Amino acid sequence: xxxxxxxxxxxxxxxxxxxxxxxxxxxxxxxxxxxxxxxxxxxxxxxxxxxxxxxxxxxxxxxxxxxxxxxxxxxxxxxxxxxxxxxxxxxxxxxxxxxxxxxxxxxxxxxxxxxxxxxxxxxxxxxxxxxxxxxxxxxxxxxxxxxxxxxxxxxxxxxxxxxxxxxxxxxxxxxxxxxxxxxxxxxxxxxxxxxxxxxxxxxxxxxxxxxxxxxxxxxxxxxxxxxxxxxxxxxxxxxxxxxxxxxxxxxxxxxxxxxxxxxxxxxxxxxxxxxxxxxxxxxxxxxxxxxxxxxxxxxxxxxxxxxxxxxxxxxxxxxxxxxxxxxxxxxxxxxxxxxxxxxxxxxxxxxxxxxxxxxxxxxxxxxxxxxxxxxxxxxxxxxxxxxxxxxxxxxxxxxxxxxxxxxxx
Length: 409
Ligand code: MLT
Description:
Elements: H1 16-30, E1 37-38, H2 50-63, H3 79-90, E2 102-105, H4 108-114, E3 125-129, H5 133-141, E4 157-161, E5 179-183, H6 195-208, E6 211-215, E7 241-246, H7 248-251, E8 259-262, E9 268-270, E10 276-278, H8 279-290, H9 296-303, H10 308-334, E11 339-341, E12 347-351, H11 358-369, E13 371-372, E14 374-375, E15 386-390, H12 395-408
Parallel strand pairs: 1-13, 3-4, 3-5, 5-6, 6-7
Antiparallel strand pairs: 2-8, 7-8, 9-10, 11-12, 12-15, 14-15
Bound molecules: D-malate.
């Protein structure tokens, strides 16, 4: 008889966003005419930049031309895209990252989970609380945790609260952890990490032989010039950090799929026999075996992000969503709600009014305002009493949603 991976049975109800969709669909069944506005999942709404579309159309034509046709591409991504990424995203910011250390992929979510393939099962793992649920759930699936308690905290994980009480900074743990997930600008709180804060993390990681998984999916939303966009802006990070980036939130590629992971060649971890092994080699081996690369057409679209037209167009796109975030922040604040984030990030983190629980506030917004957000408790125990509102939507929808919410609360 075939058996299953029993670790899946430890997972809480459902992945957060499908669970929200389930509740919304249930409501929609009995209220088919409700004018729903979705500010829940951080999915973009605005069209792809013209520079990307033009490049992709040209790439489609290449595929119809025998002399330019492409079959399997390099599993790591085409050299021209990796070079553009290395130059613009890293070297231009003073980060010593080479194109060969960049692995192009079809999503940061996949990479954040897949990276566990190259690590052992006995690492102590730390996550912030609240946290992007993928970091936790992929560790549960891999058997790196025990069961969850009533608050949804898994036995075996080290939770680092990021709350108003500590000004939304991920506190350096007092104990030794081997792997730690950091996401800045933060999903879900919209908090940011300063250079000093990340320096403290890099120092900690180097002192303990830990690896930082740095999720920089929202770096394009940083408006404060003093804030680091990459962990590699911090001295020593090449020896202790893997960085995840995405074209989803800067260029609207959520449906197109393109991302990247940086694994510096100087990064090592221990084998069972105590020897140091280069993680780059393992990730390269993993990708070459389990992945066949992102389509040529999509990679050409991603490359166009770095053209001068592309840069101007993504700047406008990011500016548009940041203006949405400003509207959300200002209107909710004016209505007397306590809000955080939304300045260098597309997420606004709202304290629920009148002591409502996160899910009660979710239900109230759904039923009374027909607005969908994300309950903070879905991101972890420390998210209870908070609610995430995403700035990814049309201006008209954001304004209408704010009108409904501020009239209700
Ligand atoms: C979110 O809403 O947190 C994001 O859509 C997650 C993601 O990018 O996968």
